[in-house]
Amino acid sequence: MIEPMAEEYSAENAPPLTKEQAIANLSSPDLSLRYYAAWWLGKFRVCEPIVVDALVAALEDEADRTEMGGYPLRRNAARALGKLGDHRALPGLIKCLECSDFYVREAAAQSLEMLEDIAAAPALIRLLDGGVAAAIQVPGRPHLTQPYEAVLEALGAIGATEAVPLIEPFLEHPVPRVQCAAARAMYQLTRDFSYGEYLVKMLDNSNLQLRRVALGDLGAIGYLPALDAIANAKVENSFKLIALKGLLEHQLQQESDACSVGADAIRVMNLMDSLL
Amino acid sequence: MTDTQQLIRAVAEADSPARMIAAVQKLADAKDEAAIPTLIAVFGYNNPAAAVAAVTGLTQLGEASVPQLLAQIDDYNYGARAYSIRALAAIADPRALDILLASAATDFAPSVRRAAAKGLGNLRFAKLPVSERQTAQAKALETLLFISQDADWSIRYAAVVGLEALAKNPDLQQPIQARFAEILAFDPENAIRARVQLAHQ
């Protein structure tokens, strides 16, 4: 449920910026320049205190509104702050979880996932209020009442074990991508292989998009038993490589010996080599 | 009609993805040079399993496939192009050097670039006359060193795989080891540094 167009800029098709310009543009009277600058600073990971301060201030922006009442600049500022990884953004991002704009809440949850700070747990858990029964499509909009995928993934990433009983029911949510997010979080919080296998089974789904999502989830949790299932999945090699890179990184983290790589990491790399 | 012509016809007449895969598999198994144009055409059918079977068939035919693979690279379909480059990389005939160099350095599609990078390291340079061999190896080395600094981690990964293979040529070892040492010291990705460690192991 990623906002359409959100990542469709590229460095080539937009005006070239310098760091100084991008920072200055964050307070430009031209709202489109502000919006672009917030994205640019995240994309190029300009992690300086002045940038973090400006982006945190942009989380409260009132000037840039869509006809639906959305806050485009807040969305981009929230996304950028996750990429910069500065924990001073935490209170502002947590506050964004209550924003009236779904996409601001989604961006904030995704960035809180990246910051991996357990302090965000209570606010994230509040978005699960009402459980699966409340997690329904908003009439006329292409999204559910809350950004459940992002919230579940964030709770898993930050290690919010107290949320396990609230997350588990989402394995039965009618939207398969939400089920994947729940399985991913449950695996991270319990290390129970049955949740990893849940995602492995999703690799056989007839929907290509969903197979890609499941690959991404398996990579994110570094689920090594999925190795061969990932290699054989009917998905483009690029997605498999990203998933295998996730497995590899997870494996490397577990291996303390820094001067050689272990047998499991080598198995992963041999598969990666074969997918080039 | 020869057996191969019948198998070619079966590919043309396949009316489901599964039948296409089966037909291509049979045609590939026939190991007949007459099948080459059909196998190459399969790359453009957007049927990944059939394309993989076609790559395998063309690779088994080896050098005989190379001229047509080179002549029929699809400039307008990067999916198809990646399969052509994979086949050329697997056959490892040094006549593919120029296309692998260009693809690794300048193709816009990462899948094509990765396949070319891996292929550059594995070319059988020994088949070239001595006079050309050094220049060819130097070009492969130069291109792989260049793309080992790409912003895309997967391109750097493929470059390391290519460089590892290229280091089997004794006179190229020194610059490759020097580059590997830099990657170990400075690459931000654990996965890339681990791949260099594996090359050393």
TrEMBL record, chain A:
<dbReference type="GO" id="GO:0016491">
    <property type="term" value="F:oxidoreductase activity"/>
</dbReference>
<keyword id="KW-0042">Antenna complex</keyword>
<dbReference type="InterPro" id="IPR016024">
    <property type="entry name" value="ARM-type_fold"/>
</dbReference>
<protein>
    <submittedName>
        <fullName>Phycocyanobilin lyase subunit alpha</fullName>
    </submittedName>
</protein>
<dbReference type="InterPro" id="IPR011989">
    <property type="entry name" value="ARM-like"/>
</dbReference>
<dbReference type="Pfam" id="PF13646">
    <property type="entry name" value="HEAT_2"/>
</dbReference>
<keyword id="KW-0456">Lyase</keyword>
<comment type="similarity">
    <text>Belongs to the CpcE/RpcE/PecE family.</text>
</comment>
<dbReference type="GO" id="GO:0030089">
    <property type="term" value="C:phycobilisome"/>
</dbReference>
<keyword id="KW-0605">Phycobilisome</keyword>
<dbReference type="GO" id="GO:0016829">
    <property type="term" value="F:lyase activity"/>
</dbReference>
<dbReference type="InterPro" id="IPR004155">
    <property type="entry name" value="PBS_lyase_HEAT"/>
</dbReference>
From TrEMBL, chain B:
<protein>
    <submittedName>
        <fullName>Phycocyanobilin lyase subunit beta</fullName>
    </submittedName>
</protein>
<comment type="similarity">
    <text>Belongs to the CpcE/RpcE/PecE family.</text>
</comment>
<keyword id="KW-0042">Antenna complex</keyword>
<dbReference type="GO" id="GO:0030089">
    <property type="term" value="C:phycobilisome"/>
</dbReference>
<keyword id="KW-0605">Phycobilisome</keyword>
<dbReference type="InterPro" id="IPR011989">
    <property type="entry name" value="ARM-like"/>
</dbReference>
<dbReference type="InterPro" id="IPR016024">
    <property type="entry name" value="ARM-type_fold"/>
</dbReference>
<dbReference type="GO" id="GO:0016829">
    <property type="term" value="F:lyase activity"/>
</dbReference>
<keyword id="KW-0456">Lyase</keyword>
<dbReference type="Pfam" id="PF13646">
    <property type="entry name" value="HEAT_2"/>
</dbReference>
